[in-house]
Every structure is written in C-alpha cells, then in structure tokens.
Amino acid sequence: DYTVTYPTDVTNVGEKTVKVTGIGNFGGTKELVYTITPCTISPTVELSQTEYIYDGNEKKPLATVSVNNVVLTEAKDYEVSYKDNKNAGTASVIITSKGNYGFSEFEKKFTINKANIKVKPKDVTKTYGKEAVFALEYDSELVTYEELMQVPNPVFTSDGAAANAPVNENGYEI
After folding, report:
1. What is the pLDDT of residues 161-171, one digit of tens each?
2. Which of 59, 88, 133, 152 is deepest in the core (most CB within 10 A)?
3. Beta strand pairing call for 51-53 and 106-113
4. In this structure, are strands 51-53 and 29-36 parallel, antiparallel, or unpaired?
5. Cα 63 to Cα 71: distance, rounded to the nearest angstrom
6. Contacts of 63 (CB under 8 A, 6+ apart)
C-alpha cells in the first residue's frame, strides 16, 4: 500500500513534484517530477469594433481572446498593445501571451477610415473665359484653414447644389 501527495498547484505552468510514500508492508518514498508547459494553441480574437472614422484620437477596440472556447483574462493570460491606431489606414491590436499561455504573438487588424471634411465655396467670382475663383468655408475640427490650403491638388466633390441653382443670363448663381 502507499499514499500519493500531489502538489498544491496542479494547473499552472511550472515544475511539479508528486510524492509516493509506502505504508504498511511497504516502505520508502519516491518523488516524481513533471512539468506543465504553456498552451501554444493559437487564440481566437474578436474586437469590439473593427471600423472607425479618423478624429485625431487613438483607437483602442476591446479584444476578447479565447483558446478552445475558453475566454482568457487580460493581464493574467495575455497583454494587449496597439500599432498604427491613430491615423487613417489599417491599424492592429497585438495580443502577447503570458502565464499559462505561450502562443505566438497574434495580430488582429482594424480600419480607421478617412474623415470627411465639408468644404463649400464662399465669395465666388467668375470672369468670362477664366476659372472661377473662390474662398473656402469649411467645417472641421481636424485641420486648420492653413493646413487645408496646403493640400496639393485637392479634389472637391459636389453635394448637388449646383444642379438646382437658378440660371440667369450670366449663367448659374451659386
């Protein structure tokens, strides 16, 4: 006959020792050492939001990380960092394993779309045979008027107002 003594922690990563001790007609003790290694299964990552509109602030969607349908705990099982998450374009959430998990760094991408800046003509002047000259009025907290004027070859799109503009002998009135 014998007794078996297990370590207090039998679930977390690390080296563990099981002790077998003979009783009655059996004597002696034997210690068996084994190691629990980190889980290396790739996680599933879901983001709270995958598309944003640029507003000058960093975007940090919440990440739900799971392995084999078990939801992991941030700071205990993994760390979160972000890459390219302020300007318009493709941004990333980086998941780095820790503790009982040893999966490779995992990257989940999300999109920051360009913001629309509404610009409309103000003080339009038109001389026959020449291009219209106008100042711009705009509505944006994202750029200053000076920054807007530095954009090379800006592209303006119409909201359709000119289609309904009244016509007189001098052309359209905008």
Report:
1. 555 555 555 55
2. 59
3. parallel
4. unpaired
5. 11
6. 45, 46, 47, 48, 74, 80, 93, 95, 108
